[in-house]
Amino acid sequence: MIRLHRMAAVALALAAAQGAAQAAIAPDAAQELARKSGLWTQLDSLLPQVRAGMDAGLQRSPGQASPAQRAKMLDCAQSSFAGEALRTTALDAIVGTLQPQDVAPLLAWYDSPLGRKIATIEATSSQQTPDPQERLRRGAEALAGATAGRRASLEAIVGETHSVDLMADTLMGMALAVQQGLASVDPAASGASMGELRSSIGGRRPQLVAHFAKISMPAYAFTYFTLGDDELRQYADYLGTPPAMAFSDATTRGVARSLTAGSVALGRCLKAADAPKAP
Q: Using the 8-state DSSP alphabet, how is residue 99 labeled?
């Protein structure tokens, strides 16, 4: 009897797994959603941030790394965090999270005039005002004069997009990559193993979450400043729909997994570069 129950449980698990596989969306659809949503642009922005962090670390300790070591570190960062290298991991997260019925409403949004307008705003707002402190200052001014309805829409957008957690986890992932790179040219610089570095960086997460929770509203008030109150409300309403919520979960998971994959690839590249060459 017990064996029959076990066999039934196995059959049920196999059926569930088969159903999940059938429910996954096509990679082409996931590619289209990632492109239209701006996810590819977001992943493309990670490499210059990682390289900038490594450069800043090297400048704080001039003379610690030889030109060859510096070139090796930056080359490994280039190959590990290039947008193309991260896309496969992010794509898998989208394919594995969304259901086939989610695709049509998501594409309808991104193909709509408002959806295209918002995607453009999200991609270009920081380029128009590069200084983050100036963006926050302007955002705080906009927020101070916002109606109650507009503030409610902004709060909903921050929540539905998981922005606070995403920003904190992204910064932690990039910090780990930078520390990996710096430790490769000066192992004594960190004085800790990679496991200890991960634990140390992870321990800062509550402070990072608190920081991003504080600045997220003015940051979003700046980003969406050109949207009218009704447009902002429509965006918040859209983000609260099941397909949009599933897509937000998928992209959050995709960015986190991509950062992890980039960090793993960076470690392997640095080790391979240090390995003795065969005669």
A: -
Contact present, 39 and 90 (Cβ < 8 Å): yes
Amino acid identity for residue 3 in this structure:
R
C-alpha 131/C-alpha 127 separation (Å) is 9
Angstrom CA distances, 45 to 39, 41, 106, 123, stand at 10, 6, 23, 11
Q: Are 114 and 227 in contact (CB under 8 A)?
A: no
Helices (H), the chain: 2-23, 27-37, 39-44, 46-60, 67-81, 83-97, 100-111, 113-128, 132-144, 148-160, 163-185, 194-203, 205-223, 229-239, 242-274
Q: Whole-angstrom Cα distance, residue 74 to residue 54?
A: 8
Q: What does the pLDDT look like over 95-122, one tens digit per residue?
A: 999 999 999 999 999 999 999 999 999 8
pTM for this one?
0.80
Tokens linked to 241:
């729909």
Could you tell me which residues come within 8 angstroms of residue 250 by beta carbon, excluding any fewer than 6 positions away?
93, 94, 96, 97, 98
Tokens (6 digits) for 222: 């700046």
C-alpha 192/C-alpha 180 separation (Å) is 10
| Main-chain phi, psi angles of 172, to 5 degrees | -65, -40
| pLDDT tens digit sequence for 18-57 | 444 445 799 999 999 999 999 998 888 888 888 888 888 7
